[in-house]
Amino acid sequence: MKNIRNIILTIGVFAGLASCNDAIDIEQPGRLDADAAFQTVTDLQAGLFGVYDNYDISTDIAFQSIFTDELSIGFDNGGQGLADYGFVLNAGSTAPDTFWTNGYDQLNAATRLIEAAVNLDPEEIAENPALYDQILGEAYALRAWGHFILLSYFSTDYTDDSALSIINLDFIPTIDQQLLRNTTGETFALINADLQQASSLLGSDTSNKTRINPDFITALRARIAAYRQDYVAAATLSQQLINKYDLADRANYEAMFLDEADGEVIFKLERTNNDNYDGQGATGSPAAGGWAGARFAFVDATLSGSPSFEMGRSLFNIIDENDIRYDVNVAPSSLIDPDYDSNNNPATDIIVIQKYPGSEGQPLMNDLKIFRASEMYLIRAEAAVAQGNLGVAANLIKDIRDARFGEATAAPSFGSPQQAYAAILDERRVELAFEGHRWFDLKRLGTRANQGVLKDPIDCAFNGACTLSADDFRFTLPLPIVEFNANPGLREQQNPGY
User: Of 260, 346, 423, 464, which one is least surrounded by beta carbons within 10 A?
Assistant: First the structure.
């Protein structure tokens, strides 16, 4: 979507409509409503780009990397992220406020576009019905994705339909409505309905990795099925994409993270010069925004690039230096102390993160990979373990490692489902490092794998926050205080532990 920078000015009117704060329902003099803003299919297309512009996972990358065990405090850190690094999380923290507010901005923007599209003059639709259907299908899919992201942070249990979820938002609320939380089952029902509607509208073309298409729908459904532990569906859906997308070889894997090739990307959010995310963003904060690489450094992805965070030693220790993922994640300028444990001197062991080295001449700015083929392999492996096929799971992990090492590797051997889940969790930790998955993975797989947050003792010596069990209440975010101010009834529905 590089052309987004060329039309962003036309979205200003729409963006003004796309807030989920209390002010959205106050009719101000001279304000343009959706009916006035969207009068043609071309208007809808501009509005769709505005909806896309609400989606960003730099927030997820920041929070999940800092809160779990992907990072250590960088030598140029000025106090950024210390609360999250110490597992300090409450209703007044930045993370719940950010994910709640951003999530409802996304849902509000998508819903306003859907309502405007439904009310468009039929004669205008008849001018380009295929484009109209495509726009509407993408909007439904974006709304489904937005609900899933919110649910993933705020639902206590993805598999319990009666657990409290979020407030479903498939309509524009009035200013006097004080809505309470839906159940997890109700939210997933809405997600599935929106995905079904999207599937009925989208065309068959899957070549553009930056636009919602049928493969995005399949990938999202596969991820949802894994979270729900619906492993029959997870196996079927992930296998469909495995059959279509090859794992990237070593050269393509590296090129993929340099934005020089799509490699095994199924869907990504493109980031480009002069877009709304072209900047440093909120360093060390879940509020984030800006370049993905700026979650870890101020200047660039080198030793001299002023890293605020470095790779955590417990993660570094499980990445083989012959693995292409080592080259992608560890900057060559890093200082690697072979006697780290005995020297106990962080100044001689500085592991600089270069997952997001930059592109288009802009350091630290890279596209955000949302779905990749390797995740489908790992979902398929997870389903195989749940179905008692430990050998199938082992071979799927071997397939990933063969691609990353560029040669045949030994298949792992599992003596129990717990060992297999632990291996999958470890492989996800390496494969999906710094991509906004680790907190979710520990939340849903940690107990079955007998794993939680585990930082290297030297990394966490300054604050003692070294471990966190996967069943800890902080693997569900609290409802934010900002929402209670406008909707006091939600206080009675706060998540446990807060």
Answer: 464
